[in-house]
Amino acid sequence: MSALKFILQKEFKQIFRDKGMLPIIFVMPIMQLMVLSFAATFDVKNIQLEVVDRDHSQLSQSLIEKYVASEYFNLVHFKHATDTKGTSLQEGSVNISLEIPNDFEKNIMQKTPVTLSAKVNAIDGMTAGISASYAQSIIQEFREEFVKANIGLFEQQNTPFEINFSMQNWYNATLDYKFYMVPGLLVLLVSMIGMFLTSMNIVKEKEIGTIEQLNVTPITKGEFIIGKVLPFWCIGMFVLSLGLTIAKLVFSVPMQGPIYLIFLFAMLYLFVVLGIGLFISTLADTQQQSMFIAWFFMVIFVLLSGMFTPIENMPVWAQKITLLNPFRYFIEVMRSVLLKGATWDDVKMNFFIIGIYAIVINTMSVLAYRKTNG
Amino acid sequence: MNSEKIIETTKLTKAFGSFKAVNEITFDVKKGEIFGFLGANGAGKSTAMKMLTGLLSPTSGEATVAGFDVFTQQEKIKKNIGYMSQKFSLYDDLSLLENIKFFGGIYGLSKEQLNERGTAMIERLGLSDVSHKLLKEVPLGWKQKIAFSVATLHQPKIVFLDEPTGGVDPITRRQFWEMIYEAADNGTTVFVTTHYMDEAEYCNRISMMVDGRIAGYGSPKELKADFKSDNMDEVFVKIARGENYKIQ
Lengths: 374, 248
Prior knowledge:
The complex is a heterodimer.
Chain A: H1 2-17, H2 21-39, E1 47-53, H3 58-69, E2 73-80, E3 96-100, H4 104-109, E4 117-120, H5 125-149, H6 151-154, H7 177-208, H8 210-215, H9 221-249, H10 259-283, H11 287-303, H12 316-322, H13 326-340, H14 344-368
Parallel strand pairs in A: 1-2, 1-3
Antiparallel strand pairs in A: 3-4
Chain B: E1 5-16, E2 19-30, E3 34-39, H1 45-52, E4 60-65, E5 68-69, H2 74-80, E6 81-84, H3 96-106, H4 111-124, H5 140-152, E7 158-162, H6 170-185, E8 189-193, H7 197-201, E9 205-210, E10 213-218, H8 220-226, H9 232-240
Parallel strand pairs in B: 3-8, 3-9, 6-7, 7-8
Antiparallel strand pairs in B: 1-2, 1-4, 4-5, 9-10
Helix pairs in contact in B: 3-4, 3-5, 5-6
């Protein structure tokens, strides 16, 4: 086991001497966490609104004001009835174009149904849906207020059956997407360190030829692999702690459940990503190759992790693939422990699966790593 | 030098598909000998050396190194040999002393042994002043000498040197050969490949590979006589052109 001590010493020395890598290991994850958490949001704000007012009445004016007052809409274009130019949707400067028809006020007063038409830029379907529903809810509110204010006018009217829909958001009451994204991003960062750094580190020794020098020594496979993996395991745990601290201090992500569960899970989980990195290093001969293979896995793991797209929304076959995705299990543990306050009983299945995963992937890597080639 | 055989091969072969990189080579190296392993580029020297050092599994034939079988006891062989590759392979981002201690440690030397032998070695090489410099900061010639020292620090029975003097100046080459002689005097068997024919003259015995086979085998004196040549350069050219397959 003394060889292990020497290889660990060497790895740590080399990592901390590498002036190019050091910031990548420690500063980049923090920057990514800070920047991506703000950027990767599904909140739809600043919807660019165009209004074509063909009515020019007091009522149309107050509807427009309601839009302007809302925090979701920016009125960027206002067109008069006489304006015949095409909509600004085409040129891309607005997301929604709302048209208020002639006789808007007159028809409402006469209780004739009116139709407001809205054209929505639906290239991004999700954003379009959310924007349209915001626009609709403002009209809804406007109608209700109008009815209330003019109770006399509508007294005799057979008011249509009304459904009151009240919604409550659980676990993320304010619908803060940061609470949702930060735990996912943390998993991503920790995994990147594991997969990329491990595979590149070993392949680098292949490139400069030192691996041959090591393979000709009596060092055992076990000593070599543990010596290579353990430093990055430590760095992974460090980055996770740092990331959780930032999540708490900067983003005030709630931490409802026992944090030690996350650390325990990470201890196991890191062996999975490090094992994958190790496995990649046995396949690749150059750092470019290892980067490319690692990216390939990375993209699949991220897209099928439930980080951006909820797994339940995926087609069944894709849902089945996510069962093989280690990211998925860590993201589940992160979100359920932090946001839902999950306990051991809730996440023990994830521990079990990732434990098996760690054993399988590391056995594969150890078998694939050869000191003597065929 | 005695007649005890420390490396012995019989029809050792390595095939990659239908191509035989090493084709039934049979030779032996005696304990304490400086054995030159020559051949043109692509003749199969490196492949043969990789088999003997346990980096590559042979396809067929037999061979023992330091008494261990190259098919089944590769890890035991590795404990008893030192290896220095033509592809320079110490760590650039470690200091001279750190490299020495790292590899010594891997071979299982104790802390005392490492300090003692490491310091002694640095002093003998006259590098005490720069022992804390990173390897990338020192010239190639020094690196080669350090690599050789690293390969012999654990006092192996055999040291394999794969083109150890490639790209260094004549003075450093001479100093390098002095180190080789010193190691041989201390009882270490030296197995060396080279493209410099003057270096071939320094060897006790040599073998010369052509197209995966051994085409010449014996002491430099014998070979020169056999091929009616004045120097090893001529011998090399004659053998490489296939004028006479003497042994096999």
